[in-house]
Amino acid sequence: MSGGGGGSSAPGRFADYFVICGLDTETGLEPDELSGENFEQTPLRRTFKSKVLARYPENVEWNPFDQDAVGMLCMPKGLAFKTQADSREPQFHSFIITREDGSRTFGFSLTFFEEVTSKQICSAMQTLYHMHNAEYDILHTPPTNDKESCSSTGDCNGTSVSKLQRFNSYDISRDTLYVSKCICLITPMSFMKACKKVLEQLHQAVTSPQPPPLPLESYIYNILYEVPLPPAGRSLKFSGVYGPIICQRPSTSELPLFDFPVKEVFELLGVENVVQLFTCALLEFQILLYSQHYQRLMTVAETITALMFPFQWQHVYVPILPASLLHFLDAPVPYLMGLHSNGLDDRSKLELPQEANLCFVDVDNHFIELPEDLPQFPNKLEFIQEISEILMAFGIPPEGNLHCSESASKMKSLRACDLVSDKRNGNIAGSPLNSYELLKENETIARLQALVKRTGVSLEKSSSSHKKDLKIQCDEEEFKIYQLNIQIREVFANRFTQMFADYEVFVIQPSQDKESWFTNREQMQNFDKASFLSDQPEPYLPFLSRFLETQMFASFIDNKIMCHDEDDKDPVLRVFDSRVDKIRLLNVRTPTLRTSMYQKCTTIDEAEKSIELRLAKIDHTAVHPHLLDMKIGQGKYELGFFPKLQSDVLSTGPASNKWTKRNAPAQWRRKDRQKQHTEHLRLDNDQREKYIQEARNLGSTIRQPKLSNLSPSVIAQTNWKFVEGLLKECRNKTKRMLVEKMGREAVELGHGEVNITGVEENTLIASLCDLLERIWSHGLQVKQGKSALWSHLLVQKNCHTLTIPSMSFSFSFFSRHIQNISEIKTDVGKARAWVRLSMEKKLLSRHLKQLLSDHELTKKLYKRYAFLRCDDEKEQFLYHLLSFNAVDYFCFTNVFTTILIPYHILIVPSKKLGGSMFTANPWICISGELGETGVLQIPRNILEMTFECQNLGKLTTVQIGHDNSGLYAKWLVEYVMVRNEITGHTYKFPCGRWLGKGMDDGSLERILVGELLTSHTEADERQCRTPPLQQSPSMIRRFVTISPNNKPKLNTGQIQEAIGEAVNGIVKHFHKPEKERGSLTLLLCGEGGLVSALEQVFQHGFKSPRLFKNVFIWDFLGKWEDAIPEPVCIFEMARNFCRFITAINNTPRNIGKDGKFQMLVCLGARDHLLHHWIALLADCPITAQMYEDIALIKDHTLVNSLIRVLQTLQEFNITLEASLVKGIDI
């Protein structure tokens, strides 16, 4: 979190070092090759190496000085030269140095220009110009016949370049040469505003005609040794060269220290873009900020990470990426980096190693490029409105101030297309006018305006008069920045407090002691994600399911688990938990935890008041700067030049510091460093340090690039760590996905949670696609598109180098199918579809292995250090992916729901009974979880056909029948096979029944329930699979063959058990979240379904007077119709029952008697009437005649038990598939 800091034994000083960087006249001009500048540029535009010229003190034990890092970050582009013709305004920027343990040091740097006094340097620059001009003349002399055309157009390339040439030229006799120099403060905490004032006043002292009151050494000594860090909850005043400087630090019950202006971020990007960038950061995408201004990069990065409270960015964090570290953009891990732009190149010229999961933010041009499939932040519209109301109260337009950005004109041209996409994405109203109108309608704003009119004062006046009462010690503008910062931060913090108000309930506390838990941390589940998500409102799920998988969330929960008690709690966690407790108290009376109702922030006033009080009453005033014990003649300076300071007086501080002794108790100093490590454990120090290292390694192998030694061996070592990290991540991901997919069986073995939800499964597969993209991007020689994986697939397809012919066909078949799907527009989308399809077909590992088997192509595409060229790791990676073949995924079918899919049908009639003589016209209708085909006519005597229709999802039923025409209209169908030609899934629909009048139960059409067949093509690679879906029970003939010796097939106990299991299956179905439910048709009509169980009830103990005759249950339901009992209440129920039977008998469909019974059971289940009908039929006199005494239906105890079981279906809203109730209108 921003603002954490301090070493383990820091004595509470405000600043640790004062540093001066610039041109070392002794070593002269050294070109900075690492920054990658073009030597075609004029010498004034090139960069040269800068050096740390001086630092005071030399070193402090609690924060060792990192010369390379400071030198690189103070002047990230090296030295810059200018002449008197150029603008030479001083530039301020801040930076962060992150140590390997994650703790941070903050730097604040002011860069200004000084005249070059060294004649050697001026001569060297002149020589470089002579050389450059000579080369330029050779390269750019225009051919003679082109001269006229040049002069006529007046703007040909040659002249424009020569103008630029003259503008950037340097003539030693005519021009004054200036070089950049930088003064810098290194501090343990991020008091940005105070440090900026200190540096600006120091610079002012050397540029103003009047000398400062004291030598500069006095002020620098004061800030280094006499100004303390303000303790938590206190404010501090100290003296700059020309005026007082005030800073204040929040208490431990407030949001952590953050001192960057949030206003600037919203002005530069606008609310909509900030919220989208914030969402990308929370989901740990790679984020690249791009700006000409170092301070803007820093402000945006620090603001986004500060707004994440209580969560923390756990990965690579380099808000200012020095030019020499550009190779780090190749890192295949989540990162948040800032890249300096030269202001000349546009986005299209920027070659980035990987873009599949990248969020690119052009800060100067109000432009953001988002990764695909970015879920929406919960309650995004209301959230944006709440932020906008605050911004407008401070006079900031919610869409941002375009005059802040470098290319307002570019933005205007983008505006029209942005409006369309914004409205489509459901963002805030598309134009500035609309957003104001939207906010004007808001009740709060309206009440505020009415109040203002009545009192006759403007909002500005009221707020300033309020400050006068309190006598705020800082200027009005600064106070407004404090106010806006805290208001915006409170609104963001409130979103998480509301979203995770009951998070503690779902934390899984370890059963063993903390140390054992810590040792097995990777294998342990620390949060009940499935239960938490099932409690959340539906619209939150796409975001939350992905957020729960992030490293920042895992660290947050780990931290919670490792807290022994309140005192031991990390400060950030303590603040968050206290806020959650308050919300719980408020929500006792109005429980809103589990609704998507938007709860506005109520903590703003209290937070603002705390800051006001600190600024009104300064808690501590530091010692004033004073004359030091300097030799006579020291402390003089020359106007316009920052002097060489006296190191003897600045190298050591005073022997004792009274303020430190009095106000900084040892305990506070000890805890200072702890404030940064908000994710470390409350164990002893060794264990804690060990945990910090391990925790970093869980999410990403490298937390921070080393800013020192950039030798090839160090870069190679860094990439090796990336390779190891990618393999570890692959292992963890595949294990997690398998454990989740295998469900209860895995839980019993001690691995994790029970049911995986569809949302979670989709999230896990999306994160696997992201991982594959990162692996394929690592060490890529030349990028050929946004998706490295898809580019590789296309190159491979075009090379035709696959060694196995069948695989080559499968490969190109896959890629061709994906390319032909018009709904997928982008390369990244195509790569993800390819991965999903390969997983569904259980070919992912095999296909990738084949893709990488062309070693020559891999060598051509990838650098030596790339993951895909590390053979052992590559083998292990493919082995991990092979484990996905153990389970069935429908990740392609369930995601690409609107695409056209070819289906192949095969109808297999009985070979024995004259299928070839069949004369009628058959038809078929296929239904799936996503839709149905409608009736498809099958040409006579054609048993195989292919058709194309929109994705049906997993197939559930087939309706098959014929029109009863011709002489032999009888058809005995054994089964029907349907194959999805893209995914290869084949479903078998068993039948084994006649379709024809006078045959079997007289049915001309039947509903068949399907089963997904196991694929045998990968038998060698598969060792087990999940159980198949239920199959159609039609093979068990649904009529009773009556004979004198007839015995019931099942006893009453078995029948009761079958009923119980069938009902239990339906109950479980409805207890799952809606998106995760399977097919209800299978539970009603499939093998072991409700229809088949009730058939057993009615077949049990049945007696018949006739021999050798097939008698169906439906024949007797018709007889019950004639035997209506007398009592009125029973009479009404019987009338209702008869109405259903009559409606089914009158249906225009040609379903047989068993089909009618199935329809009756389904309608009874839908209308919650089954238990009434069973009671009615058990008491009907005709039952006594038709059933033997042992029959289940005549046993009152068993019937009552059956009724109670069926009553449990009453609470569910059963919706029947259209194929089951076609033609019935009840």
UniProtKB/TrEMBL annotation:
GO terms for biological process: retrograde transport, endosome to Golgi. Its main location: membrane. Residues 901-1009 form the PLAT domain. It comes from the Eukaryota. SMART domains: dDENN (SM00801), DENN (SM00799), RUN (SM00593), uDENN (SM00800). One of its GO terms (molecular function) is guanyl-nucleotide exchange factor activity. One of its GO terms (cellular component) is trans-Golgi network. Residues 653-679 are annotated as: Disordered. Residues 32-570 form the UDENN domain. PROSITE patterns: DENN, PLAT, RUN. It is found in: Membrane. Gene3D superfamilies: 1.20.58.900, 3.30.450.200, 3.40.50.11500, PLAT/LH2 domain. Residues 759-897, 1081-1221 form the RUN domain. Pfam families: dDENN (PF03455), DENN (PF02141), PLAT (PF01477), RUN (PF02759), uDENN (PF03456). Keywords: Guanine-nucleotide releasing factor, Membrane, Repeat. Belongs to the RAB6IP1 family. This is DENN domain containing 5A. It comes from Catharus ustulatus (Russet-backed thrush).
